[in-house]
Design goal:
It is built from no helices and three strands. By secondary structure, the chain is mainly β. A three-stranded parallel beta sheet has the order 1-2-3, with no helix packed on it. The N and C termini lie far apart (30 Å). The protein is globular.
Length: 70
């Protein structure tokens, strides 16, 4: 809770965790530039990531994602 209020957040690291899906509130982080998901347990890659207009780095090394949508 409260994640949607961090609208100026530039970097988010959810690496090495057991999160299987991303909360809808994450998409309110419109200024996000870096998203780290190393070794994350996400079951699928959220296509909403493409909506981050300022995203410069997306790190998904060794994440348990089966596929990435085009």
């Amino acid at each position: 809770e409260g994640l949607q209020h961090l609208t100026k957040l530039k970097r988010l690291d959810i690496s090495y965790n057991q999160i299987t899906e991303l909360d809808d509130k994450l998409w309110a982080l419109t200024e996000l530039e870096e998203l780290d998901m190393f070794y994350a347990s996400l079951e699928s890659f959220p296509k909403e990531v493409y909506n981050f207009k300022h995203l410069k780095r997306l790190a998904i090394t060794d994440a348990q994602i089966d596929s990435i949508p085009p």
